[in-house]
Amino acid sequence: MEVASGVIRIQLPMPFELKHVNVYLLRDGDGYTLVDTGLQTEESRQALTRGLDEVGVPLKRITRILITHIHPDHFGLAGELRERSGAELVIHRLEVALMEPRYAGAEDLVQDVARWLHVNGVPEAEAEFLKSASMAAREFVSVVEPDSLLEGAERLALDGEDIQVVWTPGHSPGHCCFFLPSRRLLLSGDHLLPKISPNIGLHPQSSADPLGDYLLSLDRVARLDVDLVLPAHGDPFSDHTGRIAVIKKHHEERKLTLLGLATSPQTGWELASKLFHGIMERNVFQQRLALQETLAHCQSLADDGRMQKRFTRDRVRWQA
Ligand SMILES: [Zn+2]
């Protein structure tokens, strides 16, 4: 479906709570730039092939693949598509460092995560399951060496126009949005979504203050002159500053709730169990996201001087 002039959206299926991811084809002279790739599954591969067939674009005409971040739904098929198309694979350099430990030699990361769960008060029985909760993601993605690395603020040529790279750390340390200033189009990846707020988590592979980074990244995007946002999940939307205001309010409210809960020193796990009611009944993946999200808010509060972070060798506790 053409969502803007020269921009085609292809929706790809996912076997998760979130049912689809959008990838975008941007016309670039005789070729095309693809933004994100979908999961490395047969269903996703077929849906992409069908989507390309419908608009009459053979894979060989994709000359460049831009990746917003390395989560499997965005990056999963990147290696295979690069190989089959010969396209240039472009990604922020901070994402590249996450790839190997997360998707290839994951044993070291599992050790780091186990230690981190302990420090944050997760009981041994739960920690045993939680520590490898994200290993299942590995089947949806292949590690691949990119061709070009971004840092942010680059201008890439597209059909006589510019694509402006907007580095937006938070959801992932090297997350990038891609902005077409002459058309006022923002390809927002997971940074800005119409209905949900992306998971912002403090964990062994995150930056030191992911929520602080995310809020600054929202300001960076708010300053852009945008008419239409093309998100990685959900439909295109306008009024990006309105949406940003809603998301910022949501995080501030969550911070205030945490300040109300942390009247005595508590671990991240204790706070997560109170903040996300019913966390114990959820699957391990959801539990870990809840813990990461809680800790990201605590860390941001502590960095702002609104919460105390009590630190010993084997425990971190938070107090308002
Ligand atoms: Zn993501």
Q: Would you write up a description of this structure?
A:
There is one protein chain. The chain has 320 residues and is α/β, with parallel strands linked by helices. The chain has a single domain (2-319), classed as Ribonuclease Z/Hydroxyacylglutathione hydrolase-like (Metallo-beta-lactamase, Chain A, 4-Layer Sandwich), CATH 3.60.15.10. The protein contains 10 helices and 14 strands. It has helices at residues 42-54, 72-75, 78-85, 93-104, 107-119, 124-130, 210-222, 240-261, 268-275, 284-303, and strands spanning 2-4, 7-13, 20-28, 31-35, 62-66, 88-92, 148-150, 155-158, 161-167, 176-180, 185-189, 228-231, 308-312, 315-319. Strands 1-2-3-4-5-6-7 form a 7-stranded mixed beta sheet. The chain has a 5-stranded mixed beta sheet with strand order 8-9-10-11-12. A two-stranded antiparallel sheet has the order 13-14. A hairpin with a 2-residue loop joins strand 13 and strand 14 (315-319). Helix 7 packs antiparallel against helix 8, helix 8 packs across helix 10 (284-303) and helix 9 packs across helix 10 (284-303). The longest helix is centred in the C-terminal third of the chain and has 22 residues, at 240-261. It is globular and about 60 Å long. 44% of the residues are buried. The model has no long low-confidence stretch (mean pLDDT 94). Zinc ion (ZN) is lined by residues 69, 71, 171, 190.
